[in-house]
Amino acid sequence: MAITHDGPPAGTPVKASGSIWSNEKTRGWIAQGAIGGLAALLVGVMVWNAQDNLASQRIASGFGFLSQTAGFGINQTLVEYSETSTYARALLVGLLNTLAVAVVGIVFATIFGFLVGIGRLSKNWMVRQVCTAYVEVTRNLPLLFHVLFWYLAVLAAMPPARQSYSIFGEIYINNRGVYIPKLIFGEGSGVGLVALIVAIVGVAILKKWATARQMRTGQPFPVLWTSLALLIGLPFLALAAAGFPVTVEEPALKGFNFAGGARLLPEFAALTIALSIYTGGFIAEIVRAGIKAVSRGQSEAAASLGLKPGLATRLVIIPQALRVMVPPLTSQYLNLTKNSSLAAFIGYPELVQVFAGTTLNQTGQAIEIIAITMGCYLIISLVTSAFMNWYNRRVALVER
Amino acid sequence: MKQFLTALALGASAVFASGAAQAATLDQVKQKGFVQCGVSTGLPGFSNPDEKGEWTGLDVDLCRAVAAAIFDDPAKVRFTPLTAKDRFTALQSGEIDVLSRNSTWTSSRDATQGLNFTATNYYDGQGFLVRKELGVKSAMELNGASVCTQSGTTTELNVADFFRTNNLQYEVVAFQGQEETLKAYESGRCEVFTSDQSQLYALRLKLANKDDHIVLPELISKEPLATAVRQGDDQWFDVVKWVHYAMLNAEEAGVTSKNVQEMLNSPNPDIRRMLGVEGNFGEQLGLTKDWVARIVSKVGNYGEAFDRNVGAGSPLQIERGKNALWTKGGLQYGPPIR
Amino acid sequence: MTDATFIPADRPFVRAAMLAPEPPPAAVAGFSGWARANLFSGPFNTLLTLVCAAGAAYVAWVLVDFMALRAVWTGANREACVAPGTGACWPFITARFGQLLYGFYPADQHWRPAAVFFVAVALIAPLLIPSAPHKKLNALLFFVAFPIFAFVMLRGGLFGLRPVETRAWGGLLVTLVVATTGIVASLPLGVLLALGRRSKLPLIRFLSIAFIEFWRGVPLITVLFFATYMLPLFLPSGWTIDGLLRALVGVALFSAAYMAEVVRGGLQAIPKGQYEGAQALGLRYWPMMLLIVLPQALKLVIPGIVNTFIGLFKDTTLVAIVSIFDFLGIIRAGFADPNWATPVTVYTGFAFAGVVYFIFCYGMSRYSRFVEERLDTGHKR
């Protein structure tokens, strides 16, 4: 039908020149204007509704609550905190607890992931099967299942304080957590810290010198062992010279619980174990894919150059595999950090539990509190991705 | 994309909205034919579903009494189980008409949460539940203890205040839900479980060996558990408030579900006014003349409800104590109906 | 062969036919040879093999012993399972089986979710089998007609069906409702976002990127908090949304962001020639996308969609934070039941939940791998 017409068929957009619809740019601007306008309208309606609701329900608003006294206790605080501290302080405590779980979890997840991922490529059939089973089981169960399992099924089966498992009479494990002796640095232990800094600087210089020497003469230098000796020996010597101003505080049963020493909360332990095992399964798959992505020719070339298998893996395979692995690893690290919010289910006092849980209930200021909580996670995400992008650029192949 | 969100929300609300509004809750309730009542997710003695899904408890009976007063039928109630966290939101948003869920009456909740507390139907206080084998007799012996509590409640603040003012060391372990908290206590994570004392008696029934645990005598706070309604509707506020007072007045006058029919012929002017034989006090509230007779015959007076749900006639075996009538040394005092 | 048969007369000892190959030495042949090469090649490897085998055997034994050998199969209450040394307390599961499937859905109405479930299986199965016919009709039924059907059936209030409040829903029903709604709602939203992110219009691109990165940057728990506690404040006063629906909105927004990234991957894999070809035919943006690009791109990302679904299925467990009882949540609620308070209740619950989740997720991941391999053959370059 349309063929018989000269002009465009009725009902379709007019294509005559001069019409605004014929110009793609104009169309684009109109579309953008419409969508932008709708978005703005939506936000406006939401803000207006929120103001209306807050006013009619007489819910307080604004961020003034942050400077009010929190009044509740928190059982793991990395910075000074008491019941008389402010909500802002409680936020900081929660945030630091989130970061603590995330950092420890990332370290262990990476270790598990690398071991299992390499194990999945092992020539040993048994190791391969066990590693495959690990990956399939951990990845196909919900993370909350892991967390609750470790908290309710494993840690709850630990004995009460009076019947703690004891390791050499120094470390105690019971249903209140893990207690280890704590080193207390007395006056004069600053020398040890200074010595440690000196050692770190020394290691950096040593590494530079060793590389230069190897370039020049071909002689390798045992950097690892020398550095370890420096890092441990120098502070030790310094402290010895100062007459060991360090005392050990051992945990001891006092009343209902152990007192003294350093303590790992069972909630922290359960969350960290669950997060590292779960994320470890995902990292293992990334590691496996990364190593498989390095072409066989690379390891063969390394072998024909006379590199031992260990050296070949360390100097040839891993650096190339890392390149493939970094972007997906980043997202796993971010997932782990976000997943630490599952602490809310087991009562570990991190950001969501302390702030979006307790503080939200005490103040009732849902909008501000959830916005701050989401903001914290967004900032963590952005900073981590920025760092990993920087690292990615460093290891990325420099194309000609 | 946000449009989609609103569209979704708008479309869905059209389906789901249960028609809340700022005023005339009583008319709306009459129109829809039932009272929507917010209760706990399960607290024996106060609001708890039995095996058949029927709700029972002291808080539940208040809602049933409101329904009896309006419809002459205590079954015209729908119950919405709510956690500590979403109870006030549910009331603010109009999802429920009455919140009868062991909620403590505090000034800040009254002032900032968009609700009004009507009357205290149970005077409570925070207490401690411990294992017998610890040999603890008083809360002052709890130095160094781990305390399990529900996060985001006044309980969590009270326990911090108590230990701090008495210079006792403690560790607080806070969980989102009451059940998880109890479970953690049972598994040995804490020596002490703290909550309102009435709840301790109720939750003790949920423990595997309830006789291994005792409730310590101290009360460390005032917890007047009150019913709440949305702010801005004085008529509805009055109805819910006076339903409770009617139950108190009935007990005080000795009117029970058994003898309410005979009492209609009582010569006592107080009873005659209360039961609607004289005057039109019920109509003034927007109800009917015989509103108290309806409540008492269908639900019973306050004393009957207390006994049946939490007192001597229940597994909880809680003493009347502060919840006795003012004439018997307690705090329950119903203003006169006249 | 002809070369081999040519034998010079002066070389009488040259063999005229090939010798049959000798069997490999016993050391490399058969099982023992395989074991020597793969399990015991050197002391370190032998040690690894033994440690792994011992560990695997121990875990397998613990599981079988607990879940079958020492398990209790019948009983009415905790008395059946309190004896020391008992394994899994299966009556704890069987006694509340209805609850695990449907939550507090009224018992006389259980046929309704069951019917929805069977219709869902009947629609999904042919959709997932690549050779089944009528894909378009099937997809239309599943993505458009089925949600309406499921909604009416489950919620009731129409056609004489008794209304059932969503608060009564629970168990596996809620897990599947949340996961399915998440996917069905997030797919179109995700496609739009992915197109927006690749759009040439700066404002649209910016809005899409902001939306995607925002939801991907925050944990699902905070999204659920947002949907439950904040969303009601953004609606006109007096409006209420059902608690489950609030969670669904949160889950849909959250998974849409992830879905957008999956779809974007598919869009990027379509060669530029396809776009140029479509444009050369005079197709405008939407016809080009709908007729040429998206059908190819979506087919490519089926494994990604299934993986997102697995993630979502696992993540539904988090709705328990806003007091919706999903499958894991309802099992957890059972732990607090004094009638079943035994030392093994918690382990029984975890064993059962673990098996169910594993079967669902493992099944889906196998399927996604099967599709991946199938697609792979067609697109090898």
From TrEMBL, chain A:
UniProt subcellular location: Cell inner membrane; Cell membrane
InterPro entries noted in UniProt: AA_ABC_transptr_permease_3TM, ArtM/GltK/GlnP/TcyL/YhdX-like, MetI-like, MetI-like_sf
TM helices/strands, residue ranges: 29-48, 60-79, 99-119, 140-159, 179-206, 227-248, 268-287, 369-391
Record carries keyword Transport: yes
A biological process from GO: amino acid transport
Domain (ABC transmembrane type-1) ranges: 95-388
Keyword Transcription regulation part of the UniProt annotation: no
Topological category with respect to the lipid bilayer: Multi-pass membrane protein
Pfam families xrefs: BPD_transp_1
Alphabetical keyword list: Amino-acid transport, Cell membrane, Membrane, Transmembrane, Transmembrane helix, Transport
GO cellular component, one term: ATP-binding cassette (ABC) transporter complex
GO molecular function, one term: transmembrane transporter activity
Family: Belongs to the binding-protein-dependent transport system permease family. HisMQ subfamily.
Protein name (record): Amino acid ABC transporter permease
Species this chain originates from: Methylopila jiangsuensis
Upper taxonomic lineage: Bacteria, Pseudomonadati, Pseudomonadota, Alphaproteobacteria, Hyphomicrobiales
From TrEMBL, chain B:
Gene Ontology biological process terms in this record: amino acid transport
Domain Solute-binding protein family 3/N-terminal: 34-263
Keyword Cell inner membrane: no
Signal peptide positions on this chain: 1-23
InterPro entries the UniProt entry points to: Bact_solute-bind_prot3, SBP_3_CS, Solute-binding_3/MltF_N
Keyword RNA-binding among record annotations: no
Alphabetic keyword roster: Signal, Transport
Annotated family: Belongs to the bacterial solute-binding protein 3 family.
PANTHER family, A to Z: AMINO ACID ABC TRANSPORTER PERMEASE, AMINO-ACID ABC TRANSPORTER-BINDING PROTEIN YHDW-RELATED
Protein known as: Amino acid ABC transporter substrate-binding protein
Automatic annotation (TrEMBL), chain C:
GO biological process, one term: amino acid transport
Record's protein name: Amino acid ABC transporter permease
Gene3D superfamilies hit by this protein: MetI-like
GO molecular function terms attached to this record: transmembrane transporter activity
GO cellular component: ATP-binding cassette (ABC) transporter complex
UniProt KW keywords: Cell membrane, Membrane, Transmembrane, Transmembrane helix, Transport
Source organism of the structure: Methylopila jiangsuensis
Family matches, as InterPro entries: AA_ABC_transptr_permease_3TM, ArtM/GltK/GlnP/TcyL/YhdX-like, MetI-like, MetI-like_sf
TM helices/strands, residue ranges: 47-69, 111-129, 141-161, 173-196, 217-235, 288-310, 316-335, 344-365
PROSITE patterns assigned: ABC_TM1 (PS50928)
Protein's cellular compartments: Cell inner membrane; Cell membrane
Transport listed as a keyword: yes
SUPFAM superfamilies hit by this protein: MetI-like (SSF161098)
ABC transmembrane type-1 domain segment(s): 172-368
Family per similarity comment: Belongs to the binding-protein-dependent transport system permease family. HisMQ subfamily.
Xref: NCBIfam families: HEQRo_perm_3TM (TIGR01726)
Membrane topology annotation: Multi-pass membrane protein
Chief localisation class: membrane
